[in-house]
Design brief:
Mean pLDDT: 77
CATH class: Alpha Beta
CATH superfamily: NAD(P)-binding Rossmann-like Domain
Shape: globular
Helix content: 25-40%
Largest sheet: 7 strands, parallel
Structural class: alpha/beta
Number of domains: 1
Distance between the termini: 85 Å
Strand order of the largest sheet: 6-5-4-7-8-9-10
Strand content: 5-15%
Number of strands: 10
Number of helices: 10
Length: 348
């Protein structure tokens, strides 16, 4: 076998082989098999630059690079880890500690938020709740409208001194406005659509911003983490039914927010993620009546029932604990998938 383009014949080339086995027309692989030790020596010479003409010369750091990569010739050999918390292999607590940590639950006056606030307190967390009404919560509380930045800032300023350094935020606030966009039947109004966006999407951002601003100055734990921010979305964002355009758009914005915020806050050791529940037995859902509600209940595959608030709370505690949950949306819905629904449900 000869190199492509070799002018002589193969026999002539083989007859002139050098003593070290590096034939003039053989492929490099054949030469390597002939003299593996000699070839290995030559490779080391090329990489270390011990001989004149060594390809690429000694390993050097490219002066124009700022990413810490090391090069030999034009090949990248290694990349230094980015300067972010948690990139070492040191030991320590592999989970974010809940016991003794300051945690704010937005929307903790009732429903899923209240159940989770109680579960967090039972786990040893120092919990503060912000909501429009205190409801059944009997601990630290501050009234706030999450769509109002100043209102949220006042609530955080009131709660953080009571619960200590903020380690986690759970946002379960939300509101809906359902109806048809056109045609006969109950209509979605522009004002109602805007209110849904203000509470669900803008409110989630305002809360995340307020929490991050208070987590950044705190001391990181032994893994470089300062906290976690969890917003609550809905599976409607991914499987919106007829009549849910406003709610689906608002919760879709919450889903889309998780990754860019997680990437932005990574330098501070702050995680951001979203949890998307399906049908759960909350006071709002339990009191709802009508054919659509009955139909929705039947869509849960297994377990064939709406979720319990305690199951939502357990999922939140796990997401807080596990540091690898970051920058994404987690569905907890019992394999719930929803067909489009019917327009006549919105016709009085």
């Amino acid at each position: 076998m000869v190199w492509p383009g070799y002018a002589g014949d193969a026999a002539a080339c083989r007859s002139t082989r050098q003593g070290d086995g590096t034939g003039c027309g053989t492929f490099p692989q054949q030469r390597d098999r002939a003299q593996p030790r000699a070839v290995a020596d030559r490779r080391r010479e090329r990489c270390t630059g011990t001989q004149h003409g060594c390809r690429g010369g000694p390993a050097r750091r490219y002066p124009h690079r700022t990413d810490g990569r090391i090069g030999v010739g034009t090949a990248v050999l290694a990349r230094q880890p980015p300067d972010r918390p948690g990139n070492s292999r040191r030991g320590g607590n592999a989970t974010l500690k809940i016991e003794g940590s300051g945690i704010i639950v937005a929307g903790g006056g009732s429903g899923l938020g209240h159940a989770t606030a109680v579960a967090l307190r039972d786990a040893g967390a120092k919990v503060g709740v912000l909501d429009m009404k205190q409801g059944a919560w009997d601990g630290s509380f501050a009234e706030a409208d999450v769509s109002d930045e100043e209102s949220v800032e006042r609530a955080f300023d009131a709660l953080v001194p009571q619960i200590g350094p903020l380690r986690a935020l759970l946002n379960t606030t939300g509101t809906g406005h359902s109806g048809l966009s056109a045609g006969p039947g109950r209509k979605v109004t522009a004002a109602g659509f805007r209110r849904v966006l203000d509470v669900n999407t803008l409110g989630s951002f305002i809360l995340a911003q307020a929490a991050a601003e208070r987590m950044i100055p705190t001391e990181a734990d032994d893994q470089g983490e300062r906290g976690v921010i969890i917003n609550t979305s809905s599976i409607v964002a991914q499987e919106g039914q007829i009549g849910t355009a406003a709610y689906a758009a608002a919760k879709g914005g919450v889903d889309a927010m998780a990754l860019p915020l997680a990437r932005e806050f990574a330098r501070y050791g702050i995680r951001v993620l979203t949890i998307a529940p399906g049908i759960y037995e909350t006071p709002m859902f339990s009191n709802a009546k009508g054919p659509m509600v009955d139909w929705l209940r039947d869509q849960v595959q297994f377990p064939n029932r709406p979720g319990h608030a305690s199951e939502f709370a357990e999922a939140v505690l796990h997401l807080i604990h596990n540091r690898m949950f970051n920058g994404t949306t987690f569905r907890i819905d019992g394999a719930y998938r929803v067909p489009p629904g019917r327009s006549d449900w919105w016709v009085d």
